[in-house]
Amino acid sequence: MTCRRGALIVLEGVDKAGKTTQCNKLVQALQDSGRQTEMMKFPERTTKIGQLINSYLENKSNLEDHTVHLLFSANRWELVPLMKEKLEQGINLVVDRYAFSGVAFTSAKPGFSLDWCMNPDMGLPKPDLVMFLQLSPTEAAQRGQFGTERYETTVFQKAVQQKFELLMKDPSVKWQVIDAARNIEDVHADIKNHSVDAINAAENEPIGELWK
Ligand code: FDM
């Protein structure tokens, strides 16, 4: 019997929406139900490219805006062989941020078109499901202060949210908006249901190519 492939499931959203908490809970729930599942996150800060990105995000170094955009993309591409290997082995991947964050964050800077930002990520493994954890800036503010990393300001996060809204209009990507203002368990139940459907649908489909 040929092995069914795993599904590529991405969680996106603005800061404070609970992405990381929900990724962890989803991985645990899928594993508990007997499905092989692993978590990944972007940027993956442990590689050489990831270390450059980490130092930039922590404001320890400055990088030119186009350059850092391409580094974020390269950081995804360097993990593509590993991602494909896992998916082909039947392992589901739950990914905290992907190319959509890449495009939303850079295109929120002045002088960057959506098209230019999308180009380097064209052809990445296409997610079988992208869940966008929706939280208004007011609700986000009620969850406490932003951290001290680059991009963690209300003004910039609002611009990022608008770019995500543009990206969500693209019907070639399977988007699902999740109301993240509810309690953790309700949000989790919703995310788990959508993920199980995506896993079942992906089993017999080849891995797609993003934005191609
Ligand atoms: N980010 C993340 C980008 O600007 N481009 C990207 O391609 C990706 C994946 O990096 F501010 C930004 C988004 C966020 C920061 O923070 C990563 P977390 O807390 O590690 O998700």
Q: What structural category arises from helix and sheet content?
A: alpha/beta
Q: How are the strands of the largest sheet arranged?
A: 2-3-1-4-5
- Uncertain stretches of 5 or more adjacent residues: none
Our Rg estimate from Cα atoms comes to 17 Å
Residues in β-strands, percent = 5-15%
The percent of residues in helical segments reads 40-55%
Bound molecules: 3'-fluoro-3'-deoxythymidine monophosphate
Broad shape: globular
Structural descriptors:
5 strands; binds 3'-fluoro-3'-deoxythymidine monophosphate; 212 residues
What is the strand and helix layout of this fold?
Elements: E1 8-13, H1 19-32, E2 37-41, H2 48-57, H3 65-77, H4 80-88, E3 92-96, H5 99-107, H6 114-118, E4 129-134, H7 137-142, H8 154-167, E5 175-179, H9 184-202
Parallel strand pairs: 1-3, 1-4, 2-3, 4-5
